[in-house]
Amino acid sequence: MLPRIFPPDNSPESLLRIVVKFIVSNDIPIKCVSLPTEICNTLLEVFRDLNANNPIYIKDPGKVSRFISQFRADSTPLSVARLSNLPITDRDLLHLLCEHHNTLKYLDIDGCRDLTENSFPTLLTLSSRLDNYDRLIVNVKLTEQDGERQDASMVSPSSSSVEGSDLICFSDSLEDISHDGDSVEAFHCSKALLDKKYERGVITSNLGICESTHVGYKQDLLSIFEAMDVFQYGFEQLRRDLSSINEDSGLISDVTDTQRIDMNETQKMFHHSENLPCERIRLSNTSNQEPTISSYILSTFEFPEINSGHLVEKTSTGKFRHLKYQTYRLPPLETLIIGSSNIFPRAREWKRLVNKEKIDPHLPLKAFVLHGPDPHSSQFISDSILDLIVSSSMNQTLTYLDLSSCGALTISSPLKLENLRTLILYNTQISLPCLKSLKKLRYLDISTSFERQAHSYESPDSTLAELVTSLPELTHLDISGTNLTGERSNRIVGLESRYNRPLEFLGVYNTANDGSFRHCLPALRIAGEATEKHILTACEVYMDRSEFLTKALNDLFHCFRHESEFHDIVRSLNCVLTAMERHLEEKPIQIAASASLFYMVKSEDAKNYSALMKRPIVSRLLDAMHRFQNDSTMLRNGSLTMIHFKLPHDVLFEYPRVVKLLLFIVMNEEEEFIQRLGIYLLNSLVCHVDRGQKTLVGDLGAIEKLVKLIRNKLAKNQCDEVMEIAWSTIWNVTDENPTNCERFLDNLGMDLFVRCMEAFPDPPDLLRNMMGLLGNVAECETLRPRLMEADYITRFSNLLASESDGIEVSYNAAGILSHIVSDGEEVWSRLLSKTDRADILYRMRMAISRWQINSRRNINYRSFEPILRLLKTEKPVYEAQYWAIWALANLTRVYSPKYCPLLIADGGVKILETLLQDEQLPSHVRKLAVLTLQQIELWKKYASLGALENSTSIEIDLNRC
Fold first, then answer.
1. What's the 3-state SS for 786-839?
2. pLDDT at residue 165, rounded to an integer
3. Which of the listed residues 99, 182, 788, 958 has the most CB atoms within 10 Å of its CB?
C-alpha cells in the first residue's frame, strides 16, 4: 500500500508526526527528557525521512551522529531503528546496538554507505550481549559412553584444563560436536543422562516425556548447574571453577571502574577478542557539552563465563561422561535489513567470519533482508552468507527472507526454512528445485530486471509447472523479466494448475513473449504492461525497484498520451508522486513521472482538486526541477505542468523556491521555449501577491537578472515575447514597492528604457509595459527626482498623444507626469528649469480630454492610494487631479464589481466629497468627480451599472436609472 498523497488529517497519529517533525526540523534536543518507546521510534523515523540522502551533510557531517547519540536506553529507548540511506558510521551503529540491545526489534541499515565491513560481525554478535541472568538460557547435554581415548594430538584442550586431572575442556558449540570423524573421542554404547534447558527460572527436561520444573531465577552458572543436577554425575572441577569465578569477580553489581577509550579500540575489542571481557557496555557523554562520537565512557563488567563448553570426564568404572553446555540469550531483534556496498567483507575476510563463534547462532530473526552491493563494487555476496547468518535457530523462526541482488547463489541442497512464508530473490539466480521444500511458502519473487542477463530457464513451461505444484500454499508469484511464461500462446502453460485456483498476485511484467498479454491470467491482481490497471499495479509493486519502475512510468505516460478513455487519476497520481519522492536521484524516473504528471494535472478531475491537494504535486515537481535544473527535458515537463496551476495561489507555500527556480530558467537563453515558459510563469507568480512577497522576489535578485536579460536581448537587437514579458514582470514586482523601484533605477533602468524606446518604438505591448513600470517609480516621492530630467520629460510628453495599445501608453505617460507635477512648481523649477511646465500641463489636459470614459483597460490596481494622494494635496495641480479623477470614473464604470468596493474601502468617497468643496475646481474635473460618486451609488443600489458600462457619456440621468 502506497502512502496517501494528500495532507494528513487531525488524527492523533497525524498530530503526533506534526509535533515530531517540528522538533526534528528545529534541532530541539531530547537528551534531557524521558519519552516512551513509540515516540522515540517516531522521532528517529521522521529524522530519517527528512534527512536521508540530504546533501546538507557535506556541510555538517556530524549531524546524524549528534542526533542518534541522544537516544539512551534508560530515558529514550528504541525498538525500531529505520536508518536506511542515512550517513551513519560504525560508531553510530555501535552506539545503537550497545545502548538498545535489550529493546531493539527492528533494524534497517539498507543503503548506509558510510558503514564499513567492521560493522558486519558487530551487527550479528552485539545484539545478543548478555547483561543479566534474567535473560540467560542454558542448554546442557550429558552422555555416558564406553570407548577408548584417542591420541591426545587429536584434541585441543582449552586453557581451562586442570593439570593432573581427567577433565578436558574443549571450546566448541553444541551444533559443532558430532559423532563423525571430527569428534575428539570414539565412543560406543552411548547413554543419555541429561538433556535440559534453563530459561526464565524454568528447567525443562527433554529426556522421555518433557517435564518442566520451576526453580526460580538464578544469578550464576553454579546455581543453574546445581539445579540441573549436573554435579550428581561428577565434574567437581567444573564446580570449583565456577565457585572461584563468583568469588573473584562477582556479578553485575557495583561498577566503580570506568575509563575513557577511543571508539576504534572499542571496535577492535568486539571484533577480534576471543574471550570478550565485557558483556555489557554503556556509552555516555562525559561533559555537559553537545555529545560527540569521539568521547565516550565505557563501563566494563567482569562477566567471564564461557559461552560454550565441551567437557569429558573419566569415571571410576572406566566410562566417559561427556558434558556439553551453552549459555546465551535470545535478543529481541526480529527484523534485520542490510544493504550497502561497503558493509560486506572482502573475500579474504570470509574465511575468518565462517568461525561461528563470532556469529550469534541464536539470533531469532523473523525477517531478514539482505540487499546485494553495487555490482561494480569489489565486495560481493557469497554463498557463505547463508551459513553465517541463517543459523539453525532461524530454520524455525524465519518467515521473511529477501536476498535481492545477491548475484548467483549456487545453492544445490533444498532450503530447510520450515516456516518461511515470503522469499524474494529479485535479481538473484538460484536453482529453483532448491525451493520445492518450502511447503509453507506463500510469496515467491524470482523476477529480474537484467535484460542482458535475464534468467533464461531451460524448459520454462515444465520448470514453472513443477515449482508451482510443489508449493501448495503459494498465493503470490512474481516471474517478471524471466522467460517462464514460455512460448507465445493464449495461456501460460506453466500455470495450468492454478487456472482453477487463481493466485492473489502474479507478476509478469516485461516477461518473454509478451506474457502479460495472455488471456485469462490466473491471478486476481496482475503486474504487467497490457493494460493501465496492470501498469499501475506494476508501479505500486515495483516502487523500490528503479529499473522496473522507470519502464512502468514510461508505459503509464503512453497510456495518458495516446488513450483518451477514462483514467484512474487518483491512483496514478499517488504512484507518480510516491515515485518522485522516493527516487529523487534517478533522473529517468523523474522525467517519466513528470511527463505523466502533466497529463494528470490538466485533466478534468484534477481541476477539482483543492489547493491543499495540489501541494504534494508542486513540491515533488520543484524537487525534481531543482535536482536536475540543467536538464532541459525536466525543466520543460515541470514548467508545462505548472502552467495548469492557479498562480500564485497554488504555490504560495513554496514561493521562494519557485521564484529561485524560475529565475534560473529565465536566465537560460540556450533553450528558448523553456525560457518563454519560465518568464510567463514568473510574471504570473508576481502579479497577484502582496508587497512583502514582491520585496522577497527583489531580494532574490529578480530585478538585476531581468534587467540583464533585457540588455542581452537589446544587444541582439531582438524584441520578442521574452523581452516584453520581462518588462511586464518588473512592472508587476515594482507595484507599490519603493524598494524594487529603487533597485530598477540603481541597475540603470532608465538608460535601458531610453535604449529600448529608440531601438523598438513600435511594439505596443513593449511601450505599455515600460510606461506602466515607470508609473510605479513615479508614485515614489523619494525617487521622482531621478525621473526629472529634460530628456525623460520630453519623451513622456511626446507619448501623451500616442494611440498605441488604445489609451494605455497615453494614460501611463499622463500618470507619470501627474505625479511629477504634483510636487509643485518649486521642485520643477529647481530640476527642470529649461522645460516649459505650462506646455506639459496643456498637453496633459488635451490628452485626457480625448479619452473615452468607457475605455477598456489592460491594468490591475490593488489599491487606489497613489491616485487618491493626488486629490488630497494642499496645493492642488488640477491637471494631475484631472488624470486621477478620470481614472476613478473610468474604472468604477467599466469594472464596477471590482473597483467600486475598492474605492469605498480606500476612503475614496469621502475624499471626492471633500474635493467637490473646492470652489476653484475646474468644471471638467468636477463633472468627473460627480460622475464617480453617482456610479458608486448606482452600484450600491443595483450591484452593477448595466448598460452604462458601454456608454461614452459623462452625464447620468439618475431619474432614468
1. HHCCHHHHHHHHHHHHCCCCCCHHHHHHHHHHHHHHCCCHHHHHHHCCCCCHHH
2. 34
3. 99
